[in-house]
Amino acid sequence: MNEDREQFMIKRNIIKWILPIVLIVFIGSCDQDAKCNNCGDLLGGFIYMKVTASDLAKHEGLVTLDGIDVGACIRAYILEEELNVNTVSIADDCCCEF
Asked: What is the pTM of this model?
């Protein structure tokens, strides 16, 4: 009988202490941008951005591309603060919603 009680207490302590620690580590390791594309960050000259009306006016060749409209998520190369329209591609998922 005492052995059963000891085993029960051991299992209870494991659940009481180990499980919360594992959950905290798991939750803490999930970066909110883990699957996102870091909108607005310049990485290796490339930027992900959600197209705005001012972007369409600022980068005149952008409006001529198929599928590019206000709200589209794009990936493009930036050189000296100029967006290279030839490098624009539509991104599947856009994490620009803040």
From this structure: 0.55
